[in-house]
Design a protein that fits this description.
- The complex is a heterodimer of chains A (328) and B (257).
- With 328 residues, chain A is mostly helical.
- Helices cover 71% and strands 0% of the residues of chain A.
- Chain A has a single domain, classed as Orthogonal Bundle (ABC transporter involved in vitamin B12 uptake, BtuC), CATH 1.10.3470.
- The two termini of chain A are 25 Å apart.
- Chain B has 257 residues and is α/β, with parallel strands linked by helices.
- Chain B has one domain: 3-Layer(aba) Sandwich (Rossmann fold), CATH 3.40.50.300.
- Chain B contains nine helices and twelve strands.
- In chain B, helix 4 packs across helix 5.
- Chain B is globular.
- Classes of the chains: A mainly alpha (328), B alpha/beta (257).
- The interface between A and B is medium-sized, with 22 and 31 residues.
Chain lengths: 328, 257
């Protein structure tokens, strides 16, 4: 119950990100020992670090922050500790938007087409979610609304696979959907960066409103919170942050569920105070998971999205069992 | 003197009309109790007055201006509201929750020392200072009701609108809360409007009583006059009579008509 002092919390989280980032640069099929770091220049290991692992690491941090913040804000707004872009179907809608551009073959024409498709899908998802769940913000309604979105989006993706013109397209779609940080370039980083930053800033502006929403919608309204403005901020912010993340890395689930949950006791459960720490914790989780994935002794690399789902699914189930009484 | 007023308010939910032309005006320095049978429209009227619900027809006016036209933040600074069914979504500390009452006043830096002092004062007034570091979700019903009252007081509103604020309080704390409402109105010249079901308590706390039945105002008068046996028979279908007690007139409920 006692909140951790904020400077200590931030120091720990940033420290963890720094250490994991160093590992992320060093670890992989080719282990680059610290001694090699001093000899700069023509050494081929520098190409590995700069061109492969640096974008991967930066992307891991960006995506982790985006998903952690999106999860914290969605949980705060819905007053529901089970909310997260994946659980609420927003990531699936983003995937659907992106897959549509792959299926139509327009994704290759311009680099921005696929991300725009993903963000449009995510935006549509959030809007439908807010409309479906409407004024009654019961936990159950939101989860069901999310389940419906998931079903629709998954069906859309399946249809695209079903009707795909050639096996290459299918391969491309399936590979991308599994979610991974591997083989991403500086261009991907550059593409996603502005959207993730803008989205996260918008979501940051909801902090006061989320705090007030602790007293429910009526309570927040009576405290002068303009809920319609908050809804727009959340819809656009989550669409940009989570949408751009899905666009470059595919769907990486449950980060937004786990990060706020772990940090909530450390910030005294204040939903507004949870936003930034959740973002940092999201980065820690994604970086750590990506390192673990790279170290797994399998022939093909296990995709990060698959690994997160394998971890996140049971976590979600545990959470559900723990709060069974509140949901019913 | 600024007034809060309902002007010919109509509201219906679907085809059930809840308020059918309600007009009443309220002044500072008084505790007004709105009473009436279940479903009479008390809560709906209160949320219209607080500017939280838009009437289908008619207006709620604060100093002649429609409350719905006030900027949300400005409105929240002047009108404090306590909902009937409070929600507390997260396991925050009592002090944090009460601090939320300062939301309409917050600048860029969040809670200032002045805000902190006001929060402490609100905690003291409601006898909840000892609870300030407790998790709100572990409080008893009565403790929670007092903490929510502290939350409303922390906004130092010119108008305090509270929907059944005494529900869940033990008799001792009901009397405390009633005295608090009277002190706010009489000593600090605020306007206090509460809804409640307890007739003897209404008589004890309120300066003025508005009786609402079936979407219309049945009586609106100084407390002892409003609760006449005739009106109560019409409103609730009960037979009552006044008796003289040590502290003043008491209302005795004799039977169901």
């Amino acid at each position: 119950m006692t909140a951790m002092p904020r400077p200590l919390l931030y120091t720990l989280l940033l420290g963890a990100i720094a250490v994991l980032s160093l590992f992320s640069l060093a670890v992989g099929k080719v282990w680059i020992p610290w001694s090699a770091w001093r000899t700069l220049g023509d050494d081929p290991s520098w190409i590995i670090i700069l061109e492969l692992r640096l974008p991967r690491t930066i992307l891991g941090i960006m995506v982790g922050v985006a998903l952690g913040i999106s999860g914290a804000v969605l949980q705060g707004y819905t007053r529901n500790p089970l909310a997260d872009p994946t659980v609420l179907g927003v990531s699936s809608m983003a995937s659907f938007g992106a897959v549509l551009t792959l299926y139509l073959g327009v994704a290759g024409t311009m680099p921005w087409v696929l991300p725009v498709g993903a963000m449009a899908g995510a935006a549509l998802g959030v809007v439908i979610l807010l409309a479906l769940a409407g004024a009654t913000s019961s936990i159950l309604t939101f989860i069901l609304a999310g389940a419906i979105l998931q079903i629709v989006a998954t069906a859309g993706v399946s249809l695209a696979l079903n009707l795909a013109p050639n096996p290459w397209a299918v391969n491309e779609i399936v590979n991308w959907m599994m979610g991974s940080l591997a083989d991403r370039s500086v261009d991907d980083v550059r593409m996603a960066f502005p959207f993730i930053v803008a989205g996260c800033i918008m979501l940051g502006f909801t902090a006061r409103a989320l705090d007030a929403l602790t007293l429910g919608e009526t309570g927040a309204l009576s405290l002068g919170v303009r809920l319609n403005v908050v809804r727009v901020l959340i819809a656009v912010g989550v669409a940009m942050a989570a949408g751009a993340s899905v666009a470059v890395t595919g769907a990486i689930g449950f980060v937004g569920l786990v990060a706020p949950h772990l940090l909530r006791p450390l910030v005294g459960a204040r939903p507004g105070a949870l936003i930034l720490p959740s973002g940092l914790a999201g980065a820690v989780i994604v970086l750590a998971a990506d390192i673990v994935v790279r170290l797994m002794p399998s022939v093909a690399e296990v995709k990060l999205g698959v690994a997160m789902a394998a971890l996140g699914g049971p976590f979600f189930l545990l959470l559900l069992v723990k709060m069974r009484r509140r949901v019913a | 003197m600024t007034q809060l007023a309902a002007s010919d308010i109509h509201i219906s939910f679907g085809n059930k009309s809840v308020l059918r032309g309600v007009s009443a005006s309220f002044t500072h320095g008084q505790v007004t109790a709105i009473i009436g049978p279940n479903g009479a429209g008390k809560s709906t009227l209160l949320s219209c007055l607080a500017g939280l619900r838009k009437p289908d027809q008619g207006r709620a006016l604060l100093a002649e201006a429609n409350v719905r036209d006030l900027a949300a933040r400005r409105r929240a600074q002047r009108i404090g509201f306590m909902p009937q069914i409070p929600e507390i979504a997260w396991a925050v500390e009592v002090r944090t929750l009460v601090g939320l009452g300062r939301t309409p006043f917050l600048g860029a830096r969040g809670l200032t020392q002045d805000d902190d002092a006001i929060v402490t004062e609100a905690l003291k007034l409601t006898d909840t200072l000892v609870l300030q570091h407790r998790n709100v979700q572990t409080l008893s019903g009565g403790e929670r009701a007092r903490v929510l009252l502290a939350r409303a007081l922390a906004g130092q509103p010119e108008w305090l609108l509270a929907d059944e604020p005494l529900t869940g309080l033990d008799p001792g704390h009901q009397i405390d809360a009633g005295a608090l409402f009277r002190a706010l109105a009489h000593a600090q010249n605020r306007g206090v409007i509460i809804t409640l079901h307890d007739l003897p308590m209404a008589l004890r706390i309120a300066d003025r009583i508005v009786i609402l039945a079936d979407g219309k105002i049945l009586a609106d008068d100084v407390a002892a006059k409003a609760l006449s046996p005739d009106v109560l028979r019409k409103a609730y279908g009960i037979e009552t009579r006044f008796t003289q007690g040590h502290t003043g007139p008491l209302i005795e409920i004799v039977s169901r008509v």
